[in-house]
What we know:
Number of helices of chain A: 8
Shape of chain A: elongated
Distance between the termini of chain A: 51 Å
Order of helices and strands of chain A: HHHHHHHH
Largest sheet of chain A: none
Structural class of chain A: mainly alpha
Oligomer: homodimer
Amino acid sequence: MPRAGLSPRLVAEEAARLIDEQGLDALSLAAVAKRFGVAVPSLYKHVHGLAGLRREVALLGAAELGERLRTAATGLAGPDALRAVAAAYRRYAHAHPGRYAALQRAPGDDDHEARKVSAVPVEVLTAVLAGFGIGGGQAVHAVRALRSALHGFVDLETRGGFGLPEDVDESYELLVEGFVRAVQNWPDAASARAGTVRPT
Amino acid sequence: MPRAGLSPRLVAEEAARLIDEQGLDALSLAAVAKRFGVAVPSLYKHVHGLAGLRREVALLGAAELGERLRTAATGLAGPDALRAVAAAYRRYAHAHPGRYAALQRAPGDDDHEARKVSAVPVEVLTAVLAGFGIGGGQAVHAVRALRSALHGFVDLETRGGFGLPEDVDESYELLVEGFVRAVQNWPDAASARAGTVRPT
DNA sequence: AGCCACAAGCTAATAGCCTTAGCTTTTGGG
DNA sequence: CCCAAAAGCTAAGGCTATTAGCTTGTGGCT
């Protein structure tokens, strides 16, 4: 009998496809094994059990999201950059709801690789807000506010938390525009202009 | 042997306590049964399986959150009301992280009771924003924005998404104050704002 | 007070999942 | 061409939920 030719990468990608289709709760070794036509224990040759698989998928999602955000922001600055990043953020969550949900689990303190990858989206947002003159001590707060707004909207939306389906695009646009104005009037932004980028 | 004296209410409350202590993932019929010193199938006399238990806990959380928000808002208006509600929202999520996580699952379309209870928090937020002159078609968008900001912050925070623990209170305050300003300058709210103070 | 029907709790059994142990077989490099 | 490591397998054990059907406590009615 021929081998399936698995690899950690392939397993994680198939799992990601599974949860994008069926939701994060559908993630199980059994379901992934079935997709490959393979026995469940075989997956242990490529992935550290269910916990390991979850980690891989989260990493994959974080890397993809970081890349999308970076791409969206390149060549733009100020409000345009913020709008582009916000749109890319939501677009990713729509295209890959399972991955997006999976990457919300914070990595362990000792998992340096995961922490590094998870930091990329935050770095992009930090850079975008730096273009508004928000840096130094205020950067942390502003980035947290931005992440809250984007994640909160997308999370509620993908969970079906918005009962009326019609105006969701408009709602998001208003949220983003409101945030643009808020960030333009950010308190103490002028004095903090000389600060450096810090992790939030 | 004496009976345990369970009831749907007691079971849901014990489950809520469990997940506040150990996280939503720790919710299982087995864990709840153990807490009561009871066999697992006994719980089926009070709750419709695991899915039913989850629903009960979500309902409990939504009812509690709605009540807290209402209480926080009473007697206040405008920015003060918004600040009070925002503080109560985060306070509830801190005090009951498991319940808060549980109530994020949207109820089914046919579950009228759950939909009604889940609507209470939204109603309170809507009322608070109405105090800013935001009503009509804009209300939906503004409430969504507010929910996104509050939920996003609290969700990221309780998931450990904010790496630096020190300034989280300040971050939230800045987010809320930013939202207060955003809502004071909300577009298209002018016509509905006849009765409130507005800088010209 | 006593009885009895119903509710509350139990045991047994089934099915699905994850995990570890240990075996077989493919496969690619020397 | 061979053979060791990697890839996949079966077997087994433990956890979970769920259903079926039994036993027993208890409150209400006479």
